[in-house]
Design goal:
two-stranded antiparallel sheet, 12 helices, Arc Repressor Mutant, subunit A, alpha+beta, 2 domains, four-stranded antiparallel β-sheet
Length: about 300
Amino acid sequence: MNEPDKQAKHARSHEAIDVGDFVYAATGARVRRLTMPDGTHWFPAVDVCKELGHSNSRQALADHVPEAHRECLETVTGAYGLSIPAGREWRRDMNLISLQGLILLVGACTKPACAPFKEWVVEVIATVQREGSYTLEEAEVQPADPGAPIAYAMPEQIAEAIIRLEAHNLQLDEQLASGQRKLIELQKSTLAVQQAMVLAMERIADRLDELVRERRRPYGPPVALPTTESVLADWRGRLSVTEDVWTVAVVIAPVLVEKGELREPLESIAARTGLTVHRVNECLRLLRKHACIHARGGTEEGAPVYVLDRI
């Protein structure tokens, strides 16, 4: 362990109250900090001002924190030969305040979460004025290591403030988790409604197709059953058939004539024709548009079902 690390460990070991708990009780939040080798602590002014409700950090520093308790990050780290912390949020010109400066900003804020800490500060000052000193009570359990510093019990006001803050944070976490669960349920419900609407629209479209065919069907003797050749000849007469469309037509026409419907997945047709799935879908859409085939629902696997459009 190098010398600066030893100094920092030595300085921290003599803190009567853990600085993290101290600042948490003072500001109501966990605030970033830099701890120097001599044990002094520095905090980003913007973090402290944000948590305490000071909208203008520069004005808050000018009004409540003397220059002796504020510095820029480069000056503070440079005094100990330390490098600037990694990360874009730690700029070289970032304003830092000492622990004393943080306490001064806490005294100037009206945040309810800071009230117990401010009352404790008042009690400390009043006790010093009345008795000449203020001493924390020693903890019931002391370190067993030889030469270890005395452990002190956390002041009641500080302990209660931390307990309230942690309970509040747990409540907020639970509310957030509950909100996320409700959002997921809402998304599932919305998806189910959308899927039902799509199915309903498909049924309506199929029914409209049937009504159009009924209207077009001529009265008279029954029409002879179609053959593959007659179907392909009929399709050629309905539209200007491109090579891709004809390739798909030659594959699906025999199936439609023999089985009365086409239930193959688009991937299967693509494999048989050598076309892409997207191109096969476009060819089927063109055949449907020109009343050569029409859709009739889908298979359980999700493949569309097509039948001949006889007029």
